Amino acid sequence: MAIEASPAAPPVSVVPAADIVEEPEPVVQADSGVEPVVQADPGAEPSTTEIAIVHTAAEGETSAVAADVSEDVSVETVSTENAPLETEVPVAAQTAHTPHVPHAAHAAHAGADGVVLEPSLTTTATLERDAEPETGSIPVVPGAPRTRRARRAASGEGIEPDELDNPSWLQRGYLPIISWTVKHSVTTLLLALLVLVGTGALAPLMKLSFLGSSGQNTLNISQTLEQGASLSAQDTAASTVEKKLREIKGIETVQVSIGSSGSALSDAFSGGGSGSISYSITTDANADQDALQATVRKELDKLKDVGTLKLAASSGFGASNVIKIDVQASSAKALAEATKVLHDKAAKLDGVAEVDDTISEARPFIQVKVDRDAAAKVGLSEVALGSIVAQAMRPGQIGQIALDETTVKIYLASENPPQTLAEVQGLTIPTLGGPQRLDALATVSVVDGPATITTIRGDRSASVNITPAGEDIGGVSSQVTKLLTDTKLADGVTASIGGVASDQSTAFGQLGLAMLAAILIVYIVMVATFRSLRQPLLLLVSVPFAATGAIGLQVATGVPLGVPSLIGVLMLVGIVVTNAIVMIDLVNQYRDRGLSVPEAVKHGAARRLRPILMTALATIFALIPMALGITGHGGFISQPLAIVVIGGLLSSTVLTLIVLPSLYNLVEGAKDRRAEKRAAKAAAKAAADSGIPNAAQIDSEEAQTGSAAGQTGQNG
User: Do 356 and 411 contact (CB within 8 A), yes or no?
Assistant: First the structure.
């Protein structure tokens, strides 16, 4: 046997066959997913046959060609470059007389860097043997890649030159980071989990508000004097307050209205409020409105004998920022006692500017307590006696007439109604026994009582009004809730929190449901796009990390979390998921082209680094003017929204570029490994069922044959 080979040629294994005849030249396609069978023509004349053997290294898989050789074999190795993927293999017919010698053939494959590797070595074997022609077949041992991605990887289809051979300066800084995180995916995810835990620790430090301070440069103050105060007394008290207000730096104008209840709508129906004085104040637009309000409260508290002063604070859109405690009781006495206890405790809370209640606003009135026995002796009941007194005090309607198609009501009024307590006591009451004085049938006295009586489902109710000193409504609400929990009230008395605290809770709950709906809608859209239930869940990992930056930046700037901030969180859901989508979509494209999961993740993340950073930075820079509060009086809405979006984009962008690739590699890599194991088991089972040795069995036979040959040589 004569063998001629170039020095660089790899070892060649040829399957031995029996009698060889010259045959027509069939074509064998070098496809890693097909098992070719070459049929030899038995009618050809015996002659010399050349077998072209293609050497490849497609992931260590081997296609063995069976042929029988009995005598001289001349093997010539020819080095070529850029050989085609289709190689013509003239094959001689086989007869089964000579032992088998394995022969390896490999398909073109794609390197790890994405470059197509063409076959560069062709080996030609010349077989000489006179033999009887016989029809034979050349089987290919199973073991080729079974999955679509593996077949594309083996064939090199769709692979482009590696764009990371010449990375940009951004990619040069990012590639070491992404390589480490992909290699240590579990460690990266644990660190990300610690970041989320830290975010939860920051949450209690964040202030909570409803709509936030509107920043309007106006204040309203109401002043209440004793009931029955003369106009002169009211004017004197108002002058004292007005003088003090004008001395405060930052106040530009003060408008005073005497005889008003402070509400234009109420005054229109009631004809004005007795003993009420209202102040409309305009302040310097450039002044700190919260600090100025605190100064006004402090200065007004120093005044004496001016009645009760209240600074009406308002939130955005004119909404009140007063926290209320609604108290209910079956009796007036129990209601008054419970209201006083809660009022005193609320005044001691931190962050509270003012506390008042509706019961303390008492007014004097005349009480007529009927003596039932005395009234019964003269033939009167409590109701009848009360009606007589009411008719004497105020006009009573006795009928109506029509004049010129207009209905006119008729009232009966006393010519000289009682004006003093003595006149009420001496009021003449007609009875069956003759006229009687009112004080002979009832006790008449002056007592103090509530200005209004409110009932809820038949029970009397009152409210304790708490005004926070700043915008941290959430902090004060938490203290009030704890106060109600720790305070033991009398039987039959209930207390609940209301006002702006209730409005805040309702608004936050509704916006929370809106965020869940937004996340669900985004997930459904991504499922339809990716045709997967698993990958959209991986993309949503960016959403919780957006909260990290949003909460952190709000704590750092001191801007409270309110309704505008939650609207910004709704915007973040779509923005951060968009960045994740563009990255994972490219990673999937690289996997379809044949790259492994880690390589696809590295290439996809590096390629999408610049677009993601450009998108995030463009949005952040556009929101900076709003975050700085230079948008005027509308800043109470725009500033919290901008701060939340900026903080969320900063954290979600960084963590999307680091955590998402690690999570994708961990989940999708495990999926591919399971698929490869199933394919290997299926290939082994198919080989066992067909009786054809697979690559591992062929290698074992080669080792055994070599060992036996060595022992024979030693024995010889």
Answer: no
Provide the residue ranges of all domains of the chain, joining segments of one domain with +. Answer: 1-141, 218-313, 363-450, 507-681
Task: Report residue 138: phi and psi, to 5°.
Answer: -115, 105
Name the token pair of 608. 């999408």
Are 545 and 659 a contacting pair, CB within 8 Å? yes
CATH T-level fold of 218-313: Alpha-Beta Plaits (3.30.70)
pLDDT tens, position by position, 354-394: 788 877 666 777 888 888 888 888 888 888 888 888 888 77
Question: For the chain, what is the mean pLDDT?
Answer: 71
Where are the strands (E) in 175-285, listed by range? 218-224, 251-258, 276-283
Under CATH, which architecture does the 507-681 domain have?
A: Up-down Bundle (1.20)
**Residue 217: helix, strand or coil by DSSP?**
coil
Query: Which stretches in the chain have pLDDT values below 50?
Result: 1-144, 146, 156, 158-159, 161, 262-273, 316, 714, 716
The answer to whether residues 107 and 150 touch, using CB atoms and an 8 Å cutoff, is: no
Is the separation of the CB atoms in 141 and 694 below 8 Å? yes
Class of domain 363-450: alpha beta
Q: How many CA atoms lie within 13 A of 300 on its CB side?
A: 25
Per the rule left: phi > 0, alpha: psi between -120 and 50, beta: everything else, 419 is alpha
E strands in 451-585: 454-456, 459-468, 494-499
